[in-house]
Task: inverse folding
């Protein structure tokens, strides 16, 4: 993996809020097909870093490169257009719409019937089903509101949507929180299949067990600076916790 | 590993679709029960038919027009998670406007131009409260209940001012025909309303705009994140609602040959009732134009039927109010039961 070039590279990023250094000279790299867990206590700067990567706000200094090219992100739409997608647990889906409508939300394909333009619901459903099938997410009914799905299934639909729109980098904020154990396993399995497709994943979690189960590399932040980084196979939980608390 | 394979729940999903079927058929069943109830009452008390009487059918159809027009606009608003309390007085404002303008233009340019000018003026004037509502709610994030309540007061005051505090008789034969004429036995107001119904049903169920109305009501944050222009959609929704009310005002002026500030006052309750009885949720995210049609018919049948069987007219308000509350309670209980949480 180290011989390929990074998908996403962040160099010497700093961000201040008022007098507080949220991030100071932080470096971060993500390779294709790699899962990097971002670990750190509350206030360590994890969410500030992911918000900069996803275009929510710009850094004060430092640079971001995506696929080897230096970029600046004006807003989240800009980041999504480049293929950097954040998967939020609660903000992702419109509960009252079906799976197809959610996958295509904001980008609905149109067809013509009786000479009138109409949303092509059949195509939305079929293409959504195709994408979900390739990820081995089998849902028995795609024509029901996603409200009827379990938390894990909804998470899968959100991830499937990101993949359908060619996301290269997925930032997953606590993807397994608020899920039951079997559902957590499904999401972790899905992460493995995304890896196989070359998607780079930034995985934020408080759950060390999940971090060790899912990630290739662990990057620890502490009070806005890089506190250390380990390949997951070489790391042990005690060491990571020590880095987190300092 | 397959998500569904790990969780086979055929019985549960069968049950869910059964509940969904009952929910969507609820309004139809209620309408049928009402009609049968009035028919039986009518047969027993007066040995006469209620539903077999063409006069009754026509009257109910005409009676449904104004509340249905308001309710169709209200459907978009309620699906998006809002409410529009200003529709009644927007309708009044439009009825006064069409009357004033038609009266001013008709003597100079004739009936046709007078009618056209009146309608254009009424629709343009009704856009204003909708635009203001939309800007308040979409841009300044004023809660819809408060923003449109303010507009209720403004539209009411302006309508009375334009009418000089009285009703404005209108002298234009074309407008009067629109309100009272028939084509092939079908009242013109009913034909116009059916056209509006088809157009709005198409917009809500088949267009991107309609889809975004549902998305905004289902999860506003998700709609924003999906790149939908949520503010623009919200603005259009409130303008649409106001224009529906404006058309209602024009038809009112035609039917009664007069504009009146209070023309739509009692229709606010009826329009919200029609939408909610028709299966829309006041929490946003669900509802259909067809459901609203059934809801409006239910309200009209209740009101007309009660008069028909000689119940004191004021009971209508009581019954419609009770039916709204029951509909909301049913909706709430379904929301609790419908969701599968793990």
Result:
């Amino acid at each position: 993996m180290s011989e390929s070039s990074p998908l996403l590279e962040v160099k010497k990023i700093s961000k201040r809020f008022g007098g507080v250094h949220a991030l100071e000279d932080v470096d971060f790299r993500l390779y294709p097909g790699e899962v990097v867990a971002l670990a750190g206590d509350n206030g360590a700067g994890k969410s500030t870093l992911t918000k900069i990567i996803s275009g929510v706000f710009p850094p004060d200094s430092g640079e971001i490169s995506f696929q080897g090219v230096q970029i600046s992100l004006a807003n989240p739409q800009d980041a999504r257009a480049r293929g950097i997608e954040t998967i939020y647990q609660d903000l992702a889906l419109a509960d009252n719409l079906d799976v197809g409508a959610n996958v295509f939300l904001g980008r609905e394909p149109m067809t013509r019937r009786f000479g009138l333009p109409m949303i092509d619901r059949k195509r939305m459903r079929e293409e959504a089903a195709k994408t979900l099938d390739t990820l081995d997410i089998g849902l028995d009914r795609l024509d029901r509101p996603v409200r009827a799905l379990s938390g894990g299934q909804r998470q899968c639909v959100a991830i499937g949507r990101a993949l359908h729109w060619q996301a290269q980098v997925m930032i997953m904020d606590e993807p397994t929180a608020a899920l039951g154990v079997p559902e957590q396993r499904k999401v972790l399995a899905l992460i493995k299949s995304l890896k196989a497709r070359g998607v780079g994943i930034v995985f934020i979690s408080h759950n060390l067990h999940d971090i060790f189960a899912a990630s290739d590399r662990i990057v620890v932040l502490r009070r806005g600076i890089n506190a250390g980084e380990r390949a997951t196979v070489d790391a042990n939980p005690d060491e990571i916790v020590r880095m987190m608390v300092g | 590993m397959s998500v569904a394979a790990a969780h086979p729940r055929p019985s549960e999903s069968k049950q869910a679709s059964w509940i969904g079927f009952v929910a969507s058929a609820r309004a139809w069943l209620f309408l049928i029960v009402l009609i049968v109830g009035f028919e039986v009452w009518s047969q027993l008390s007066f040995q006469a038919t209620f539903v077999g009487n063409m006069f009754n059918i026509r009257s109910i159809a005409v009676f449904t027009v104004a509340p249905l027009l308001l309710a169709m606009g209200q459907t978009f608003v309620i699906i998006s998670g809002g409410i529009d309390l200003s529709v009644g007085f927007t309708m009044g404002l439009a009825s006064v406007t069409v009357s004033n303008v038609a009266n001013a233009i008709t003597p100079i340019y004739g009936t046709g131009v007078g009618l056209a000018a009146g309608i254009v003026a009424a629709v343009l004037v009704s856009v204003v409260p909708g635009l203001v509502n939309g800007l308040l709610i979409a841009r300044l994030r004023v809660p819809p209940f408060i923003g449109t309540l303010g507009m209720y007061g403004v539209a009411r005051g302006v309508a009375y001012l334009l009418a000089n505090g009285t009703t404005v008789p209108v002298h234009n034969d074309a407008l009067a025909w629109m309100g009272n004429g028939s084509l092939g036995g079908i009242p013109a107001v009913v034909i116009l309303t059916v056209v509006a119904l088809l157009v709005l049903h198409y917009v809500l169920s088949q267009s991107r705009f309609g889809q975004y109305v549902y998305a905004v009501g289902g999860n506003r944050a998700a709609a924003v994140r999906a790149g939908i222009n949520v503010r623009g959609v919200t603005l259009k929704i409130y303008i649409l609602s106001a224009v529906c009310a404006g058309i209602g005002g024009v038809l009112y002026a035609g039917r009664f040959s007069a504009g009146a500030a209070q023309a739509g006052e009692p229709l606010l309750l009826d329009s919200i009732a029609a939408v909610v009885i028709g299966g829309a949720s006041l929490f946003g995210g669900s509802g259909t134009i067809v459901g609203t049609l059934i809801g409006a018919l239910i309200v009209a049948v209740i009101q007309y039927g009660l008069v028909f069987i000689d119940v004191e007219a004021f009971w209508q308000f009581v019954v419609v109010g009770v039916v709204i509350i029951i509909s909301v309670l049913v909706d709430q209980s379904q929301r609790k039961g419908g969701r599968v949480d793990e």
Remarks:
- The mean pLDDT of chain A is 88.
- Chain A has two domains: 8-83+168-245, 90-150.
- Chain A is about 35% helix and 30% strand.
- Helices of chain A lie at 46-53, 76-82, 99-103, 121-134, 151-164, 181-196, 208-214, 237-245.
